[in-house]
Task: inverse folding
């Protein structure tokens, strides 16, 4: 089982907002990793392949986001409820918990900035992952990508309109709302796997 490195979880309480805790985030990361492993096991036995080799990266990111949403709900003991896939926001707060609120989840590969189709200000979690080899070793660079997804970073915070770069290119990429550098800096890092960080100097 791939358990999160103990030093990856940030323990400063002020970093955890909206009803989230170190336990909830850590168990959600572990849930994503273990679920992906359970999907890969029969694929490897039947076809010597993994899920990451069968789907496009955009679809893999969506799958990781959906699994993380479920993992948050399972580990929160009823504080959060899952919204339907592709429905805003991803996490619905149980109104019995006054400190909790609805949260949107955005996922991105490596050091890419998470994005969506529309600007959605409010509470957010961003999840970024890398593709390591089957021993869990990550090497920077597109040509060195492995086949095993590992979450390397989770951030929590509230985003405003100014924290998104919005474009609407008709007939091309369509509507895109990318969390910009100021937006990423406004989010608190609560999980950071230094061994698999794709940034040259870390954070």
Result:
């Amino acid at each position: 089982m791939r358990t999160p490195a103990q030093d990856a979880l940030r323990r400063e309480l002020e970093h955890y907002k909206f009803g989230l805790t170190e336990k909830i985030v850590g168990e959600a990361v572990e849930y994503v990793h273990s679920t992906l492993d359970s999907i890969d096991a029969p694929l490897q036995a039947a076809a010597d392949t993994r899920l990451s080799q069968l789907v496009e990266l955009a679809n893999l990111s969506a799958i990781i986001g959906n699994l993380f949403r479920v993992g948050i709900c399972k580990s929160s003991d009823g504080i959060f409820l899952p919204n339907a896939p592709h429905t805003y926001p991803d996490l619905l707060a149980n109104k019995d918990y006054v400190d909790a609120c609805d949260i949107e989840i955005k996922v991105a590969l490596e050091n890419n900035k998470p994005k969506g189709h529309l600007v959605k200000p409010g509470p957010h979690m961003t999840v970024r992952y890398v593709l390591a080899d089957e021993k869990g070793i990550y090497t920077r660079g597109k040509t060195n990508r492995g086949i095993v997804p590992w979450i390397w970073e989770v951030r929590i915070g509230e985003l405003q309109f100014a924290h998104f770069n919005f474009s609407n290119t008709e007939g091309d990429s369509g509507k895109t709302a990318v969390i910009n550098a100021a937006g990423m800096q406004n989010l608190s890092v609560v999980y950071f796997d230094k061994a698999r960080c794709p940034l040259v100097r870390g954070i």
